[in-house]
């Protein structure tokens, strides 16, 4: 799907920052697309951008109202419907990452039809995908993989896109989750694709390209996570990755939502190489990205130095310390 920019960010009346994490991700990485935020009374999240009415957002050039929230079950609260209808009536498209389809709400569907506006349910793609074929294709691809879910895979590839472009490299972020689709304006929420077509959907996201072009593919879940390993494996095979970066959060002992222990970085490297060779026999690790938010700077730098020495790979916190070392490794491993 192609989502028209700029965005007016709708936060409803969410109770905290975490409930608006999709909106925060968009503002962090595409601030130039966000003209302002629309909040209902009682909203406890604040993106730090101007509060605007729908009319003010339209006047500033907004083209799409983004429902930038997450909640248990991905439901659309009934008392938000009137605001969404008003946005459609004002000429905005509406995009949501919730599980509830916008078009399943009669008032929203009728308003969109009457005003000729687009409804984008980012979790539900209308694109038809083939099954994955695994045929080698031109271009270069990097995939982020993780010791767990929610360890920074999206932020790592976004930081790499920025860093690689600054070095004159031809690189594009490829979104595989709802927040990433909003950030990119294009992509597929892989966790909502029927299992047989996951690898084919990733081949569609990152097709054959110029030999010097890099597709930087957002990873999902973990090959070791009992809930999400199926999605992670299909993504790995479809990505046909030349390179991968292992993402890690060092304070966890078990994976999120389950009692299984966190795998080691080396275990992730070994399994990713073994399984990734099915579609790219030359797959290799090129770096380690660590979310050090919970660590003091000195402790964070010491940990990164230790990991780099242990694995013979550049290690960094892409948001805190940048991606120069990761880009240097890619340039050295894959010369033009």
From TrEMBL:
UniProt xrefs under Pfam families: DUF1611, DUF1611_N
D-glutamate N-acetyltransferase-like C-terminal domain sequence ranges: 131-327
SUPFAM superfamilies on file: P-loop containing nucleoside triphosphate hydrolases
Domain called D-glutamate N-acetyltransferase-like N-terminal: residue spans: 42-124
Gene3D superfamilies: NAD(P)-binding Rossmann-like Domain, P-loop containing nucleotide triphosphate hydrolases
Xref: NCBIfam families: DgcN
Protein known as: EBNA-1 nuclear protein
Phylogenetic placement of the source organism: Bacteria, Pseudomonadati, Pseudomonadota, Alphaproteobacteria, Hyphomicrobiales
